[in-house]
Amino acid sequence: MSSRIVVKIGSSSLTSVEGGLNRDAISFFANEISNLKRDGYEVLLVTSGAVAAGFRAIGYSFRPKLLHEKQAAAAVGQALLMQAYQEAFAGHGIINAQILLTRTDFISRQRMNNAVMTIEELLNQGAVPIFNENDTVSVDELKFGDNDTLSAMVANMVKAEHLLILTDMDGLYSGDPRKHPNAVRFDHIEHITEEIYSIAGGAGSSLGTGGMRSKVDAAKIATRGGVPVFVGKVSEPGDLSHAVNGQGRGTYFDTHLNSLPVKKQWLGFMSTPLGTLQVDDGAEKAMVHNGHSLLPVGVKNVAGHFHAGDVVEVVNARGVILGRGIVNYDVEQIQQILGKSSTEVFQILSSVHRLEVIHRDEWITLL
Ligand SMILES: Nc1ncnc2c1ncn2[C@@H]1O[C@H](COP(=O)(O)OP(=O)(O)O)[C@@H](O)[C@H]1O
Ligand SMILES: N[C@@H](CCC(=O)OP(=O)(O)O)C(=O)O
After folding, report:
1. Using a 6 Å cutoff on CB, does residue 231 contact ligand 2?
2. Is residue 220 annotated as involved in ligand binding?
3. Which fold has domain 4-263?
4. Is residue 208 lining ligand 2, measured as CB closer than 6 Å?
5. Do 4-263 and 271-365 have matching folds?
6. Per-residue confidence at 206, pLDDT binned at 50, 70, 90?
7. Where in the chain does DSSP place strands (E)?
8. Residue 82 pLDDT greater than 90, yes or no
9. Which of 169, 175, 224, 229 holds its CA 20 to 30 A away from the CA of 282?
């Protein structure tokens, strides 16, 4: 299998504030991507810009704010976006394919497997698949909202070698450079800490959506899935190859993990937790640092409405989220056995299927 690169391009790099596509930018990126293909990489493109490309064409003077207006603009703009890419890539003899996804597609293992099979075949045939969110059918709470998260999920799904998130800023700075001119750039980030989150602000222009915050979110998802991430600017010929080779103008988020099995990707980033377990310091250490399962004795509190087999979030004594797991008991059972030793659990419950509250094979650390 040749190396796979997922490239995400934000609205701010493709469109103008007045609305409409910047065709020069599109042909520049098509050129950069075709060079990567020539170097032997398989490239998957996640592109934003449908709303920005379509809102003028459909008759709005400003980028719309209401959901149904944005969806209408995106429906118009998506066709314009694909047309522009197809024209630009055709000049390099490259065929494109359009793939529109929503968060629910990732929640369903079957839909995800189908998507993976289609993508594998497209890559086999030498095509460059182009992804965007399926804005028309996405509903508020299910929306990716920005395509940064989508790009991380795609990168994990196809086990990419790199995720390159391209934007109008050359990396993550110690503060938004638009507001803090003396901010300095991070070249490498080993671990995404709370401090990194606190400096990553919102969108810098009326074109973008998630700003650096959603890019850090995306970097967290991808690096947890074993995919290293570059966030930065690609505006000169050769910049995209430099970004792949570690010499890009931006910030690199390192990963020390191997690619995550699909089941754990689902558990960590696509599942919906139905409850929360609070654990004590001993259980935190056992689960997070020693790779052990969670036993009833380590559980301090429980909240939510769930049954055995559902996903729950686990927090430590200070309320910090440690990860997610599939729970082996109903909430009512946990209320009876929290803090109890294994012997007591067998005395309290009439039948115990598995002693662990969460087995280590059904757990993902998200710190
Ligand atoms: N700490 C930070 N470092 C760099 N940029 C930041 C930071 N915090 C916020 N930003 C803003 O994030 C913007 C990029 O995100 P966004 O506008 O959503 O672009 P895109 O459309 O490419 O996704 C930058 O233009 C910048 O103003
Ligand atoms: N799906 C939307 C993406 C919205 C958006 O602006 O995202 P981004 O520029 O990546 O922050 C579109 O194509 O307009």
Report:
1. no
2. no
3. Carbamate kinase (3.40.1160)
4. yes
5. no
6. low
7. 4-9, 42-47, 96-101, 128-133, 162-166, 188-189, 229-233, 249-253, 275-279, 299-304, 311-315, 321-327, 358-365
8. yes
9. 224
Pairwise CA distance, residues 352 & 355, whole Å: 6
d(CA 15, CA 52): 6
**345 to each of 54, 97, 163, 230, how far by Cα in Å?**
60, 55, 46, 48
Cα–Cα distance measured from residue 33 to residue 128, given in angstroms and rounded to the nearest whole number: 9
Residue 232 in marked binding region: no
Global pTM reads 0.85
Beta bridge mates, 98: 130
Confidence of residue 350 (pLDDT cuts 50, 70, 90): confident
Enumerate the domain spans of the chain: 4-263, 271-365
**Which of 133, 168, 198 to mutate to test ligand 1, by most ligand atoms within 8 A of the CB atom?**
168
Q: What is 271-365's CATH number?
A: 2.30.130.10
Confidence of residue 110 (pLDDT cuts 50, 70, 90): confident
